[in-house]
Amino acid sequence: MFYDLSNSRRFEIAIFVLIFLNMLSMGIEHYGQPHAIFFMLEVSNAFFTTVFGLEAIVKIIGLRYHYFTVPWNVFDFLLVVASILGIFLEDIMIDFPISPTLLRVVRVFRIGRILRLIKAAKGIRKLLFALIVSLPALFNIGALLALITFIYAIIGMFLFGHVRQQGALDDMVNFETFGRSMHLLFRLITSAGWNDVLESLMIEYPDCDPHYRNQSNGDCGYPLLAIIYFTSFIIINYMIVINMYIAIILENFNQAHQEEEIGIVEDDLEMFYIRWSKYDPHATQFIQFSQLSDFIASLDPPLGISKPNTVALVSFNLPIAKGDKIHCLDILHALVKHVLGHVEETENFRQVT
């Protein structure tokens, strides 16, 4: 019973509805809220934590140690533990004189439940997968961005480290030290307020002292050099390098989408085994030949073949074991070949199936 419940589609939908309701209850919380709302939110938090805890228990009983072999289940389990820990720590902090700031940090554990919606949202998972695949290339672009910013920070110190602080320039926003130069350029990468900084660096006599501390240009700026400096920095870093991040992520997202359109993805294999469990509840890895047509028809595209599917099943040329039984991997191999064409039975294919 617990196994069937843990694999039930209705059970999953009910859990995701509760996650969505939990998200709405989190949005109600606000600063200076009445005590009645605070009490209602505390009760709802305890209710949702209990429900999600029971969900984890049902799946652990039904799937046993296989529950922890699925990354999403481990993720759910950690969130449940964090939520329970957050409730206990919150009670401890109320009983003892502990800073309210720590109490707010503990309540952040609740937000993690919303991340479970990623499991249900196929598009979000695809985008997250594209982001993970893009990480090596993004790291290389980040290194290039840091190198360019480093060079411009050194140049900025030599050119504008002496400019008088006025306008957008102050004790923190200036080129006087390397750290402040990097901090300012990091802000300018987003093109935030670069025109105000440029205007402040274009200061000329009589608004500045050309002989300040006997320096070559005093505390005045270099208008022409400032224009060239900022224009080149914005074009290289903001318009080219930063947009390379977007280009790489979109390229990997498009590639993941194309692979999904023409191939078999992990969700298809998971769907296959979930439907298989209904026809093979004792996990013998075999089903009767008489059940094959109904099983194939119950599968979702691209693996499923709707009835009448007798001709397609005959073309599969499946090996039949003793007792008119068929092995699950033989069926899966035949379905994959039907979708993709001929598939060589390599070691990688055996690991996938």
TrEMBL record:
Record flagged with keyword Repeat: yes
Alphabetized UniProt keyword annotations: Cell membrane, Disulfide bond, Ion channel, Ion transport, Membrane, Repeat, Sodium, Sodium channel, Sodium transport, Transmembrane, Transmembrane helix, Transport, Voltage-gated channel
Bilayer topology term: Multi-pass membrane protein
Entries under InterPro entries matching the protein: GPHH_dom, Ion_trans_dom, Na_channel_asu, VGCC_Ca_Na, Volt_channel_dom_sf
Transmembrane regions listed in the UniProt entry: 12-31, 37-58, 70-88, 127-160, 226-250
Keyword Magnesium belongs to the record: no
Chief location of this protein within or outside the cell: membrane
UniProt domain Ion transport: residue ranges: 9-260
One biological process term in Gene Ontology: membrane depolarization during action potential
Compartments, record wording: Cell membrane
Superkingdom assignment: Eukaryota
Cellular component terms per the entry's GO annotation: voltage-gated sodium channel complex
SUPFAM superfamilies recorded: Voltage-gated potassium channels (SSF81324)
A GO term, aspect molecular function: voltage-gated monoatomic cation channel activity
Domain Voltage-dependent L-type calcium channel IQ-associated: from-to ranges: 272-312
Family: Belongs to the sodium channel (TC 1.A.1.10) family.
Role played: Mediates the voltage-dependent sodium ion permeability of excitable membranes. Assuming opened or closed conformations in response to the voltage difference across the membrane, the protein forms a sodium-selective channel through which Na(+) ions may pass in accordance with their electrochemical gradient.
Descriptive protein name: Sodium channel protein
